[in-house]
Amino acid sequence: MDSLVYYLVPTLLVVGTVLFMEWFAAWSHEHIMHGWGWRWHKSHHEPHDETLEKNDLYAVIFAAFAVSLFWIGSNWFWPLWWIAIGISIYGVLYFFMHDGLVHQRWPFKYVPRKGYLKRVYQAHRLHHAVEGRDGCVSFGFVYAEPVDKLVSQLQRNKRKLDPEALQDEEERALTE
Prior knowledge:
By secondary structure, the protein is an all-alpha fold. The chain has one domain (2-175). The chain contains seven helices and no strands. The N and C termini lie far apart (69 Å).
């Protein structure tokens, strides 16, 4: 029984942290990066020639947090070490999925043609289909909702943000 707990608890901490990080990353992307943290994140939504962008500072913050948890977990409270592993695994997934697959920030180009990777690719491209920070869809990095659902949401968001589109919609409703 001890060996089960010895392996089960760390495994649950790591897997749970990776799952939590996808939720937290999506939440912070929508509410912080597209909110009060837009000054850093804006660099990610604008064309540029630089290798790094101000938005990369968010990855530095997450990495510093993980390093802190490794240190605290090694010295005082061991479960934090496993949580730091989960955060680090999520960071690697983020790097490959977002920076590599979607934004092609690696030396070779690959555009997925089918399946899960295509859906993630398309979802994040739809996130960037909006100019500015308002009206975006798909804030997650590893999970992506079905593309047709995101396109519908994008169209609804556009109508909310575009007074002319809203006026046309109201006029149509009056004439029907």
